[in-house]
Each structure stands twice: as structure tokens, then as C-alpha cells.
Specification:
This protein has about 230 residues and is an alpha/beta fold. Helices cover about 30% and strands about 20% of the residues. The longest helix has 16 residues.
């Protein structure tokens, strides 16, 4: 359809005119002396959005599936075991990405229209007495159903189980649109999109953290990701 369309959907959202006008200038030379200062300011500001003091952001072009892959391959190895909840299309695709990367995925199916079940997650982790599960994957706001999960409750469930698993949160349609507190909620990997609540053009992947490929059980690292 020609012209500007205002669709009330989770995204891609309409980019405000003031943002479009701000883009109407010469491209910044990535080798110029001013480019490092520009990059550092963006990375510092992202911490304020995620509400994290410890996460280190990285910016590069990618798609949503590229973001999932970046988060998983930089913190896990093929054969590692993860617990993943599925209560919508994007949770399903997150699981598919993990499986394609060779991870051993324990799938916890939930009725579509509901959110991540903290009690079931706690019980599953308590049953994992050898702590073979390396991570828990949830979707903060499932775009397909519009249901928001209680991330803080999931973290409490992990802690109540006394389990060292990392918490991976897809907040693509959640961040900026809904409350999100990375440090307070104990999120290790937070993933979102520039084309959703940020109301920016799509195409950027931003993540923070410099973690080893295989994460030791004692590691309590912080990880942030932003993707279009």
C-alpha cells in the first residue's frame, strides 16, 4: 500500500518524524575520530534502558533469529542442555533455533494464552540434581498472543530451586513497551528489537557480555541483547 500506514500491531512500529529527520545527514565515517565517542555513548545509554549496571552492549546488524543465535552460541556449546518454555509462535521459534544449534532442549509446553509457569520451572530444576541444565529460555511478551510473563517470578523459581542455570529472556516486544529490570530481576541474557518499542528502523543487533563459549556452572554473568 502506498503512503504511510498506521497499523496497531506489535511491530515493526511507525518511526516518528523526528527520528526520520535526524537520519537525514551524511553517513558517519566508521574510521573517523568522532565515531568511537558516538559508539560509546550509545552503549552506555543502552544500559539505562535495560536497567543494568553490569551488562556490556555490542552492536551489529542482524535479524531476530540472528539475535537468538548470537545469544546462544556465545554462551553455550552444542550438546548443552537447556529448559525452554513454549506458549506462542516466537517461543516455538526460539526453541527451533536452539535445536538447530545442537542444544539439548527440554521443552515445557504451556497452553497458548498463558505465560511462563514459575512453579513448573522450579520443579523441573529441582529434579535436575546434577545441574546439567545450563539455561532457561522464556519469552517476556509473546507477540503471537499478547501475553506477558512474570520474569521476576521465573528468576525467583530458579533461585528457589538452588540452580545455577542462566536466564535467557526474549523481550523483543516487551522492552520499552513494558517494565523490564535486568539487574533487579536477575536476567542473564536480555533480547529485544529496535523495530518494536524503540520505534526505530529495523536491522540492528546489540548484545552485551563477553562470556566464554562454554559457561562454567559457577558463572553469574550479565548479558544484554538488542535485535531488530
Amino acid at each position: 500500500m502506498p503512503g504511510r500506514n498506521f497499523l496497531f500491531v506489535p511491530g515493526p512500529t511507525n518511526t516518528p518524524d523526528r527520528i526520520l529527520r535526524a537520519m537525514h545527514h551524511a553517513m558517519e565515517d566508521h574510521r573517523s575520530s568522532s565515531f568511537p565517542a558516538l559508539s560509546r555513548s550509545i552503549l552506555a545509554d543502552l544500559r539505562k534502558v535495560f536497567l543494568t549496571e553490569t551488562g556490556q552492549a555490542f552492536v551489529f546488524p542482524a535479524t531476530g533469529t540472528g539475535m537468538w543465535e548470537a545469544a546462544l552460541v556465545n554462551t553455550l556449546s552444542p550438546g548443552d542442555r537447556v529448559l525452554a518454555t513454549r506458549y506462542g509462535q516466537f517461543g516455538h521459534l526460539f526453541i527451533d533455533t536452539a535445536q538447530r544449534l545442537g542444544l539439548d532442549v527440554d521443552i515445557m509446553d504451556v497452553e497458548w494464552g498463558e505465560g511462563a509457569p514459575p512453579d513448573r520451572i522450579r520443579d523441573a530444576l529441582r529434579a535436575d540434581t546434577r545441574h546439567t541444565i545450563q539455561g532457561v529460555l522464556i519469552v517476556h511478551n509473546e507477540t503471537a498472543t499478547g501475553v506477558t510473563s512474570d520474569v521476576a517470578a521465573v528468576r525467583k523459581a530458579i533461585d528457589d530451586a538452588g540452580h545455577p542455570a542462566l536466564l535467557y529472556v526474549d523481550t523483543v516486544s516487551g522492552l520499552v513497551s513494558l517494565p523490564f529490570e535486568m539487574d533487579a530481576w536477575g536476567v542473564d541474557a536480555a533480547i529485544t528489537g529496535s523495530q518494536k518499542g524503540f520505534m526505530l528502523p529495523a536491522g540492528l543487533l546489540i548484545r552485551s557480555g563477553n562470556l566464554p563459549l562454554t559457561l562454567p556452572p559457577c558463572c553469574n554473568a550479565k548479558y544484554v541483547a538488542l535485535v531488530a
